[in-house]
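ok, trying the design again with the full structure, not the truncated one.
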């Protein structure tokens, strides 16, 4: 109620007159005047429009289809077995090996689902132990109570190499 008497159209009026004027005033004029915008000054309206457009872009930019950009990055990479560059292909099958099936990056003796996060080059991996005949399906990975979640940074360097958390991996053969 106290704000009612500070409205520009009711200053210096008695409370009864102020209520009547405020109730009969146009909702557009009261809102624009109360918000500091004057309908008679078109520059203020344009400024408000520009601010609204800018805020809309700023709010929506992080959601501008990050899955597509990251999926395209993964699409460039050849499916197969990758080994840490410091180990080389002689270490294939050892602890520095990552199996890339075209969508998921699975380190040695693990089965992982790799899903893009909104941040550039960031992924969330859901992993369980898996090898040979015991290699789990997607449903089994998701349902496993012992699954491990980790966020990783993966940058595809070329169709045959990528960096995962700062470690370079090179292609060493088909799966």
């Amino acid at each position: 109620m106290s704000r009612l008497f500070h409205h520009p159209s009711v200053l210096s009026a008695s409370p009864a007159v102020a209520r009547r004027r405020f109730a009969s005033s146009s909702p557009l004029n009261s809102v624009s005047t109360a918000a500091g915008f004057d309908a008679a000054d078109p520059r203020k309206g344009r400024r408000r429009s520009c601010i609204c457009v800018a805020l809309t872009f700023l709010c929506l930019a992080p959601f501008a289809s990050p899955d597509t950009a990251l999926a395209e990055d993964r699409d460039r990479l050849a499916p197969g077995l990758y080994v840490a560059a410091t180990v080389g292909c002689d270490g294939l099958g050892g602890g520095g090996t990552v199996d890339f099936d075209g969508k998921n990056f699975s380190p040695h003796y693990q089965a992982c689902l790799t899903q893009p996060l909104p941040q550039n080059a960031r992924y969330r991996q859901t992993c369980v132990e898996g090898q040979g005949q015991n290699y789990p399906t997607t449903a089994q990975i998701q349902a496993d109570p012992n699954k491990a979640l980790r966020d990783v940074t993966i940058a595809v360097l070329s169709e045959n190499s990528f960096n995962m958390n700062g470690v370079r991996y090179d292609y060493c053969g088909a799966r």
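Keeping the full-length input from now on. The chain is about 30% helix and 30% strand.
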